[in-house]
Amino acid sequence: MSNVRGPRTKEKMREIAIVENGSILIEEDRIVAVGAFEQLEVDFPELVKKAKIIDASGKVVMPGLVDCHTHLVHGGTREEEFNMRLNGSTYMEIMNAGGGIHATTKLTRDTSFDDLYEKTRQHLDTFLKHGVTTVEAKSGYGLDWETEKKQLEVAKKLQATHDVDVISTFMGAHAVPRDYKGREDEFVELVILDMLPKVAEQELAEFNDVFCEKGVFTPEQSKRILEAGKALGLTPKIHADEIEPYKGAELAAEVGAISAEHLLVASDEGIQKMAEAGTIAVLLPGTAFFLRAPFARGRLMIDEGVPVAISTDFNPGSSPTMSLPFIMNLACMHMGMTLEEVLTATTINAAYALNRGEQIGSLEVDKKADVIILDVANYKQLQYFYGMNHTNTVIKNGQVVVQNGILLKEQ
Ligand SMILES: [Zn+2]
């Protein structure tokens, strides 16, 4: 893979460059070399001699997984709504009745920083045990500055204390707060004039995201919010075309967003524009699965040349899972993606969706030593033995942090 730069597209998404019986030489937190053990002994005799050997015979070794779209920091759970949906209510009905995002907003506002930190820390432990070494975390369950800031500061503290890398996205425009109903533009102004400058000034996030959806934020409002963030150095992301087609994919290409997310009902034209602009499609099949919605057209997007990443969308309403391997399975079964494509979509392409494609997402020299060892004989078994966690060992920044499926230390 070493000659390719940028997110992988089309047939490049299938080229996963397998090294049979290979070895990886790690020094401190970096990958020094990849290849046959005998060759590493010749090229790096001193390093190999003093190295601690981890035997991964009969297993699969691959880059740590990158979960590039989560709503990691939030108060409470919403299993009652799940039960309501099973009994016939729709997601939008629940949201309009004060459930959905609004319910989590209240719970997140009411949860203290320390409790939120502890809850999120436990979630990160679970991600790590599933082989995920980098997680994106969006705010957006505060919808007021105090709580948005609390969410972002929890993520920032965890980035400093937890082995999993946590990369923050500000998403103040995740919903219109109930007290702004009918005054949506006033809330947009609050996000643009008050919240975004504070996020940038206090260095609380790298990305700026907005929920562009009928009944939430219009494409015009979304554009203003994303452009305002861009002017402050925040890279645009966008929740687009999730429930109704709304030209969100087109907008993502137009504003130069690094990625557009969901895209369940993205138009042909929008997909074309994303391919031309190189916008990464972050597809979230867990959400379609859990809401019993149509799946995004992943196969078509790849064939049209859109770089595709997939992610859990971990959140308490529409995708309460921390298992990226299960999401990979859904992408195979319901979006027509191949076994190779889902690996690319959760490693190098996901890394590029977080602007980290040069540091993580593949096992290449000089990259960060984020490596996982899986209890399967070959990569095809990963999805074949579905619904299971195959993670045996996680090496994060060159250190073993999960061994035999167990976390080695309290994070
Ligand atoms: Zn989301």
From TrEMBL:
Keywords: Cytoplasm, Histidine metabolism, Hydrolase, Iron, Metal-binding, Zinc
Cofactor remark from the record: Binds 1 zinc or iron ion per subunit.
Binding site for Zn(2+): 69, 71, 239, 313
Pathway the protein acts in: Amino-acid degradation; L-histidine degradation into L-glutamate; N-formimidoyl-L-glutamate from L-histidine: step 3/3
UniProt domain Amidohydrolase-related: residue ranges: 60-401
Function: Catalyzes the hydrolytic cleavage of the carbon-nitrogen bond in imidazolone-5-propanoate to yield N-formimidoyl-L-glutamate. It is the third step in the universal histidine degradation pathway.
Catalytic activity: 4-imidazolone-5-propanoate + H2O = N-formimidoyl-L-glutamate
UniProt binding sites for N-formimidoyl-L-glutamate: 141, 315, 317
Zinc among keywords: yes
List of residues binding Fe(3+): 69, 71, 239, 313
Cofactor: Zn(2+); Fe(3+)
UniProt: 4-imidazolone-5-propanoate binding residues: 78, 141, 174, 242, 318
Protein location: Cytoplasm
The enzyme's E.C. designation: 3.5.2.7
SUPFAM superfamilies reported for this sequence: Composite domain of metallo-dependent hydrolases, Metallo-dependent hydrolases
Entry protein name: Imidazolonepropionase
NCBIfam families in UniProt: hutI
Family: Belongs to the metallo-dependent hydrolases superfamily. HutI family.
Organism: Lysinibacillus pinottii
One of the record's GO molecular function terms: imidazolonepropionase activity
Record keyword Cytoplasm present: yes
